[in-house]
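Input.
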Amino acid sequence: MNKPQIQTWLWSLILIALGTGVLLRFWAITNNQFFFYDEGMYLGYNRKFLDLVGANLPKDLNELFTILGLMFKTALTTAKALWFFLLNLRVFILGPEAWYFARIVSAVAGVASVALTYLFARRYFQSQRVALLSAVFLSLLPSHVFYSRLGMQESLSTLLFLSALFVYLIYRTQKWSPAVAATLLACVFLTNYRMIISPIFLVAIDVFESRRNKEVMDWKRLTIGIGVFAVIVFVVGSLYGGINRYVTFGWMTHQASEAEGQRSLMNFLSYPTYVFLLEGFLFALIFWSNIYLVMKKQWGLILPFLLVLLQMAGFSFAAEKGARYLCVVLPLMAVAAAVSVDYCLNVFNKKAYIVGVIILACLMMTIESVRLAGAQTNYAQAVGLILGHDPQAGILSTQPLVEQLYVPHENQVQECPKNLSDFIALYEKGYRYLILDPQAYISWTKDEQRFSPPLIDFLQNIHDHVKPLAVFNHLSPLSLKRFVLDHNQNLSQSLRFLRVASQEGYGQIRIYDIGQSLTFLKQQAMAASARQ
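Output.
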């Protein structure tokens, strides 16, 4: 095969890979498939107001701006104001109950991130090969495909974060660069309050670039960047009596207090482990081979790798080591992997083996990503089964915020209480069905530790001894792994939970008749009393 034919085949494979990535992000994206509690919270917020707006759409610009002003004000009462505001806009585009709107935003942001990753790598490394490899890796990367399909803010914040780094790094000689980059980072913060740390990346870039190029740091540029970021955060946080600042920093304080006691060495290995568990073994090896570049002092190649390590290190101190916190640096992870294989192609003679590793890594990622794109959940089916039997049914659930999306009135689904007396009281108010799902192993465990069975006493007794009305498999082993690692606080405990999850049915949704369950609990209590 001559060189032109080889190039034709390579371009064909690249286009197929990129096209596959786009398809995976948009495949069945309008299905109302949700995995996380947060997705229901984001979409359910302001529901009554949006229903009212949907029934009375603005007749002129004055009414439109009045409604937008109210949306903006209510969004500021959350810790992710920009994301809540964007989701509220669905009422003007697809209607208030177009729950898939959030997934469409994520898919569009995901595809845009792939394109921007190409541009970032092309401009920074001045290499089309690195740029194409970066785009292909990100296009097929399982985690990026996954987050590009969720009704969560991760995909959008990734696009905004990469845009900020692109502007700050690629246009570093332009006077407007730090202010624009800081504005984009402020938008990242307003979609994800945990990214209050994002100015650290500006500091890291300037320190690295000044050392690499043996230049004096431009403190003025850095000060402008950090200053503009701080001003935007302060001004937005101070609007309407400072409600956003109160809510956001309240959450950050809460997160900081939860982080106490989460300092075991194993937990600090969470993020390095996720690369192997979630992205595929070969891709992980390619990414971590950047350590070889560090050893070889290839300083001009390792900035993306170092920025990924910075994100890993920062969030290793948080109470929750959620895999989603790596999402904003997934493009940099793809670039770092591309740089590593490009270096090997330039230095080593066994190019056919290196190309084989690249192709095999992409195939492994594609298989994983296809499985993720086809993953299903059963929240809608569980609720539909109950409503089909009784349209006015009251439901207690361990995942109420997602399941409330599937009922006409939010109060039909309430959070399952954590004590038996409240459980009985809600039954007396007309709640007749209980839905247990994997969320129970986050918030309803007896020892109050995540993924640490058993559940609280009365729920575990119901689970073990009462026959469910229906059981749905719900989360596949692949989806459950994502669910657990996205809520991980103790890596050892989370991995133990996953090892026995299939045989214990931890990924299931189980529906119970509350009346039947209370009858059993009463009989159990009477039997225990008689034995005494």
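The chain is about 65% helix and 5% strand.
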